[in-house]
Amino acid sequence: MRYTADEEANLALVRGLFDEVLNPMDSSAVDRFIAPDYIQHNPSVETGRAPFKAFLDHIRSVHPQGIHDVKRMFADGDHVIVHYHVRRWPDDSGWAVVDIFRIENGLIVEHWDVAQDVKLGGPNANGMF
Amino acid sequence: MRYTADEEANLALVRGLFDEVLNPMDSSAVDRFIAPDYIQHNPSVETGRAPFKAFLDHIRSVHPQGIHDVKRMFADGDHVIVHYHVRRWPDDSGWAVVDIFRIENGLIVEHWDVAQDVKLGGPNANGMF
User: In chain A, which among 100-129 make CB contacts under 8 A with chain B?
Assistant: First the structure.
């Protein structure tokens, strides 16, 4: 690929976030991926790393079978973009989500996301992914 | 920047889509940006270029003051990702949207998107953008 070494490292960091933090919903692994002063743009979560850990513990308690099924991932400079399917339980139609992460010095320092209920049975047969 | 020439061209194509098609809501300009067999993943629109033109004419008729306010744009190989704020009228809180476009031979051939109502007054002061 034509990724720079920094972009490859950023992609690996975000893959690690999904594999070691989000899918196991393991707040104890957060510090290896996210900076202390993490800037949160998700409008339902307080800014900072500690509130993100609390959020993760909360979703683990209410949706212990939840998964984050990554469909595609992109890198551009210090940003990584992930398009994925959240399912809260095995047969949940779930949400389509895009996360945008900004990385500095090997840690995620800023996060934006957009989430939408997956709509089934619309006028095209292509699916949302 | 470290974009390839193809990535630069893809970014310019998508900027053109926003400037010449989406913001003026001009369906007559669509053919310069979108391939005839355009694969649509938005679950509310039929697949193909012609239904996209009809959709554009529809939103222009119901929201003639609508704008697509681009906040950030990324390129990775044959994909371009755009994070933007749709406002249907001047003081609309609007939607946060991410579009993902795939480009082949200088035209957009595939499109995914995720949209969410902008939430005001949440627990952080960072805003959704």
Answer: 100, 112, 114-116, 118-120, 122-129
Other CB atoms within a 10 A radius of the CB of residue B29 amount to: 18
Query: Which tens digit of pLDDT belongs to each residue from A29-87?
Result: 999 999 999 999 999 999 999 999 999 999 999 999 999 999 999 999 999 999 999 99
Whole-angstrom Cα distance, residue B49 to residue B52? 5
Number of domains in chain B: 1
CA–CA min distance A30, chain B (Å): 20
Tell me if B123 is assigned to some domain.
no
The pTM assigned to this predicted structure is: 0.97
Q: Which of B14, B119, A90 is nearest to B127 (CA)?
A: B119
Q: Is residue B42 part of a domain?
A: yes
How far CA A100 is from CA of A22, A88, A114, B35, in Å, comes to 15, 21, 9, 27
User: CB neighbours of B116 closer than 8 A, spacing ≥ 6?
Assistant: A114, A115, A116, B95, B96, B97, B128
Per-residue pLDDT of B66-123, as tens digits, reads 999 999 999 999 999 999 999 999 999 999 999 999 999 999 999 999 999 999 989 9
The CATH number linked to B72 is 3.10.450.50
ipTM above 0.85, yes or no: yes
Classify residue B61: in a domain, yes or no.
yes
Question: Per the CB < 8 Å rule, is A77 touching B4?
Answer: no
B90 C-beta neighbours (distance < 10 Å), count = 8
Q: Is A49 among the domain residues?
A: yes
Q: Which domain holds residue A27?
A: 5-117
- CB-based contact, A10 to chain B, within 8 Å: no
> B65, exposed or middle or buried, with CB in 10 Å at 0-12, 13-18, 19+?
exposed
